[in-house]
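Table S2 (text version). Query chain:
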Amino acid sequence: MLRLEFLKSTMEMALTRQKNHCASCGEIIYTLGVSGRGEHRFGEVSHAHHIEHAKFGGSNAIENCVVICQSCHYSAHEGGNYRDGTVRGKKDDFPYYTGCVSPSCPEHSGRLPALRKAGA
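Corresponding structure-token output:
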């Protein structure tokens, strides 16, 4: 099976749409990939995830991309069953698809989180 990868620009647009939150748990993700590990509250990297897996017809379009924490990605694939998983995702599975679930929240009302130094 051909493995589809997201373009970096697609991942950046998804993270911006999510207002720098993990689309699954809501934890703030400051930077994509391994480089964000030091800034993540639990020291995790972030991953781009296909909502609808490629084997079920999912594309690399921005609408099918969410950025999630490493542990959320593991959970999304049935405990790491990346190749043979049977879960068919949908946007509703990701409560932070468009960022903070509370638009009245002053901390997250459309603003990107303030960057902080690792370990702060």
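Notes on Table S2: The longest helix spans residues 8-17. The first strand starts at residue 46 and ends at 50.
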